[in-house]
Amino acid sequence: MENLTQKVYECTLAVEAHMVCDLLGQAGISARVDGAFLSGVGGELPLGNTVKVRVAPERAAEAREVIADWEKQQTGDSVPPVTAQPRVKALSWFAVGALVGGAVAFVMVNMTTRDDDIVSASGVDYNGDGHNDVVYYSVGSVPSQTTFDRNFDGAYDTHWIFDSQGRETHYEADDNFDGRFEWQAEVVNGEIKRNVLDTDGDGRPEQIWHNVNGVLTGIDYYFASGRIVKREFYQAGLLDSAEYDDDGDGVFERRIRFDSHAEPIL
Fold first, then answer.
1. Could you tell me if residue 222 is inside a domain?
2. pTM of the predicted model, to two decimals?
3. pLDDT at position 117, please?
4. Does some domain include residue 263?
5. Is 217 inside any structural domain?
6. pLDDT by residue (tens digit) across 20-71?
7. Are 162 and 147 in contact (CB under 8 A)?
8. Which of 26, 158, 203, 240 gives a 20 to 30 Å CA spacing to 62?
9. CA distances (Å), 261 to each of 231, 238, 240, 264, in order?
10. Residue 95: which pLDDT band, with cuts at 50, 70 and 90?
11. Is residue 259 included in any domain, yes or no?
12. Residue predicted with more confidence, 237 or 201
């Protein structure tokens, strides 16, 4: 587990801290949110408390530069209202999340009273420890983000990101609970279409999962060089066959079929 101890950002809104954490993750910098468990259901903190974003000491300077650039974009004179965010499909998943997060912070700081700009949140504490294990954030009546703490350790490890129309655009997960969101998924019509695993954060995937209508249809396995070494094909979510490129020449020399118990058919 990385030594994420150096504070690079602090604020009074848990949702803002999580957006900054996501921003750093998109830049390849592992980060964690410290103190979010102190916030209430609405995301506010008791007086005198702040939520902090921490990174590894050796990445602190780089992280501060990324945050500074993001703050310049969020604090300009032309910050748009939440309802006026552009629908640009070419934006990356985090651009959507950052726009929502910036608008959330802007609305809260300026204490706007327009119904369609009011930030709200509700949560569920499954294990009764006083920390919400799932939090649903909304801007007005439109959902903006849902976060989960699946292993009840006080750190959120799953995020669903929504666009300004309340449609899911991105899913990310930290399945080994180390503070890095190694799974990044493209979401279409509310279903995960393409899920990318990058365990070491080097920008090169180890696996890419493909889904149709939310059902797994294939998995591509990548070598460190970036070439595909194995492909698995699924029928109705069950392993049907696989092909292998054993010598790395780009040609899949072997193909194996599997039975209903995922055992090779010889």
1. no
2. 0.59
3. 57
4. no
5. no
6. 887 887 788 888 877 654 444 344 444 445 788 888 899 999 999 999 988 8
7. no
8. 158
9. 18, 9, 10, 9
10. very low
11. no
12. 237
